[in-house]
Amino acid sequence: MKKIMIAALTLGTTVSANMAMAADITPEQSRQQFVDYFKAKSPSIEFNEYGNGVYNYNPDQRMQWQAAEEFPPYLDFIDAGEALWEKDQAVYENCFGKDVTKVRVMYPRFNEKTQKVETLEGQINQCRTDAKLKPFGWKKGDIANLSAYLAYQARGQQIDVKIESEGAKKAFLDGQAYFSKPRGQFGLACAECHVYNAGRRARGNTLGPALGQTSHVPMYRAKWKELGTLHRRYEGCDKNMRIVPAKVQSETYKNLEFFEAYMANGIEINGPGYRE
Ligand code: HEC
Question: Residue 192: what pLDDT?
Fold first, then answer.
């Protein structure tokens, strides 16, 4: 990310001090404040529209995106994902149950036994290795295709992440800290771009809202010409911030996903989504 873009963003830093994303309030209070913040910022955007990210802010981009979603380039990848499911169906049904429409909506979730967050992609590979199958690569290809098939089957159901224990709250707070802490040579936080400066343009990019960032995953990107996982995208933004990214499916990114998904509770799953 170029210097000018960073300069354009420094205005937002004063605001960030005001927004409470503190450890002394409950996750539910944090979520409510987060939603209220976006509502106050853009009163005309309907809550569920946050599943469509940056296209809420830019009418030209929105038209192009709507045209792309009419004949979406990701349909073949969903078909490939379905074929993967069918190939090892007995194995997956053993892990996730027989109803393919109910898998996406289970994740991310906090496993009280292991005291760790589980993601859909993480559990797909866990399921495979438990059954002595070769795990998929993490960021694209088979894992993204299978994840996209499961997201597509779950479309229309609301994100519903639960925090019901101290351990889950700790994971949420860890994700929140990663999201809001300034890092790297530019001292940027995710929140700087995706909360305080959401909707602003910086070097030809409009910055999308953090609210709803997990609704449409995995995403098809025109830039990639294929699907990629949410963690692939996290890695890209970390690299743009000039920091060494965390590892995809590491505890750090899993907690970040847990935090972001909890904040998006109530938004409908609409994956896979098309992005530029
Ligand atoms: C310097 C600004 C900047 C920072 C800091 C930044 N991003 Fe981004 N990010 C972007 C831009 C620009 C895009 C593409 C437009 C959009 O969708 O928001 C993007 C896209 C994304 C997307 C895809 C959104 C979608 O709708 O598909 C995710 C997820 C994301 N960022 C997460 C993060 C996270 C998590 C962090 C912190 C680790 C972060 N970003 C930090 C600029 C930034």
Answer: 95
